[in-house]
Amino acid sequence: MIPYLTLPFSFSSSAWLWATSIVKPVINDFQTNAPLEAGLITPDNDQLRLWYSSKCWQELQDFFQPIGLEGGDIQFFYYKKLPRPVKDPRGNPHIDTTGPDQWSGDKHDINFRFNIVLLGDEDTEMFWWNRDRHNQGVESKEFPRPDGIPAKRLQARGENRDDQYLAVGEPDWRCQSLARLNQEASFVRTDILHSINWTGRSPRFTLSIRFQRPWDIIESLRKRVALVP
């Protein structure tokens, strides 16, 4: 099992321009006001209405339909540009979860996402460990969402990065070719521990479509892609 699948994907010119323009206020707000240096952003209802009625969304659905996917939930990930690069770029090994409400909590796993980088470096490295929520090295932690409201997540056990990485050991998989701006995007598995390396030298903004469908769908897609000459 490889926990990622990178595919050719691009928006039309007009859809790409719309997407990269409409997220600018979201980026500015997070950069100025969010309590964390990086985080998951859930669009408000007005933003969601704009996205779900957009040409971008229709083009995504046209891309998903032959795969056997439909719908999905729109979210964003943003990593701030920092005044000084961080000394330790290792990210927090975590599992994406939701519930009991739609957008926060640690009750249900988010099995995978389709991630489209709209702004940032193309060679950011992502890691995975073959450890799910039932592994003894995983614990539930509370953290502040970008709006300051407390939420819960599952992450590697430990009080700091050194503790966490000592607990989980070397990643089982890694990849730093998951995105090319408006050329390639990736399905990434998120129901096992994963993280990215990030220095803060440049901002990074990702449009992320989350799914709670089985990862087997993506493995079946991988087999079909492999058969294409």
Q: Could you explain how this protein is built, in words?
A:
The chain is of the alpha+beta class. It has a single domain (4-227), classed as Jelly Rolls, CATH 2.60.120. The protein contains six helices and 14 strands. It has helices at 13-22, 24-33, 45-52, 55-64, 161-168, 216-227, and strands spanning 4-8, 38-41, 73-79, 94-95, 97-98, 108-109, 112-119, 126-128, 138-144, 150-156, 173-175, 184-189, 194-196, 204-211. The strands form four sheets. Strands 1-12-7-14-3-2 form a six-stranded antiparallel beta sheet, covered by helices on one side. Strands 4-10-9 form a three-stranded antiparallel beta sheet. It starts with a strand and ends with a helix. The relative contact order is 0.25.
Number of E strands: 14
Low confidence ranges: none
CATH architecture: Sandwich
**Backbone structural class:** alpha+beta
Order of helices and strands: EHHEHHEEEEEEEEHEEEEH
Domains, number: 1
Q: In what range is the share of β-strand residues?
A: 25-35%
Mean pLDDT across the residues is 92
C-alpha-based Rg, rounded: 17 Å
CATH classification, class level: Mainly Beta
Give the termini distance in whole angstroms.
22 Å
The CATH topology comes to Jelly Rolls
Q: Helices and strands in order, then pairings?
A:
Layout: E1 4-8, H1 13-22, H2 24-33, E2 38-41, H3 45-52, H4 55-64, E3 73-79, E4 94-95, E5 97-98, E6 108-109, E7 112-119, E8 126-128, E9 138-144, E10 150-156, H5 161-168, E11 173-175, E12 184-189, E13 194-196, E14 204-211, H6 216-227
Antiparallel strand pairs: 1-12, 2-3, 3-14, 4-10, 5-6, 7-12, 7-14, 8-11, 8-13, 9-10
